[in-house]
């Protein structure tokens, strides 16, 4: 895939959740944001080996990475319906090499090849009973990877930077993001809302 625009065009084929689960904070990652982050990671040489997407959901980030032909892509999610959606989206996008779709908890991913890159949009922990969900995912990513790209609520930089530093990691970049999300749950009052977020690039010291 030569350009970011071409990447976004391919990822626009990814469909969202048929029945999103609010308790799992299943909000889709927009194609434009996924294409932007994958393009940045590729330019920095972070996509050459194994890339892991924790909490892959619809498979958007994993499929974006797969279009750049890394050695291996793993998309992991705890929801069987999400894994099936990701598989269907892989057929729509048709990357050169399909990701390996794995059913499992992104907060406890298990074994992962050494030197992997994690690229993820974890739950923000905004729902009742899900407080700290982003912390669990971030801890897992720092345990299994050498480079991490992780999306969080805007204003999380201080926490993420400190959390990473305590584990021997360093933040190299922070990217501001704006998620335009369509109404998908009953408690949403607007047809479309914009969520301000940030993606942080972290490297092991």
Automatic annotation (TrEMBL):
Pfam families the UniProt entry points to: MTS (PF05175)
GO MF assignments: methyltransferase activity
Domain Methyltransferase small: 42-141
KW Acetylation (keyword) present: no
GO-annotated biological processes: methylation
Keywords: Methyltransferase, Transferase
Gene3D superfamilies: Vaccinia Virus protein VP39
SUPFAM superfamilies, sorted: S-adenosyl-L-methionine-dependent methyltransferases
tRNA-binding is among the record's keywords: no
Entry protein name: RNA methylase
């Amino acid at each position: 895939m030569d350009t970011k625009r071409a990447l976004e065009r391919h990822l626009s084929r990814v469909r969202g959740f048929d029945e999103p689960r609010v308790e799992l904070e299943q909000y889709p990652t927009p194609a434009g944001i996924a294409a932007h982050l994958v393009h940045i990671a590729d330019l920095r040489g972070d996509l050459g080996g194994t890339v892991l997407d924790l909490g892959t959901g619809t498979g958007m980030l994993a499929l974006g990475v797969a279009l750049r032909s890394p050695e291996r892509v793993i998309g992991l999610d705890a929801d069987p319906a999400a894994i099936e959606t990701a598989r269907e989206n892989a057929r729509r996008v048709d990357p050169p090499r399909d990701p390996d779709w794995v059913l499992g908890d992104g907060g406890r991913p298990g074994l992962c090849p050494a030197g992997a890159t994690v690229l993820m949009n974890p739950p923000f922990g905004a729902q009742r009973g899900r407080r700290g969900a982003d912390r669990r995912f971030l801890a897992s990513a720092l345990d299994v990877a050498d480079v991490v790209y992780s999306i969080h609520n805007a204003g999380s930089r201080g926490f993420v930077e400190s959390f990473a530093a305590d584990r021997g990691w360093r933040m190299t970049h922070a990217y501001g993001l704006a998620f335009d999300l369509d109404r998908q749950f009953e408690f949403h009052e607007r047809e479309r809302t914009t969520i301000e977020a940030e993606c942080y690039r972290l490297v092991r010291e």
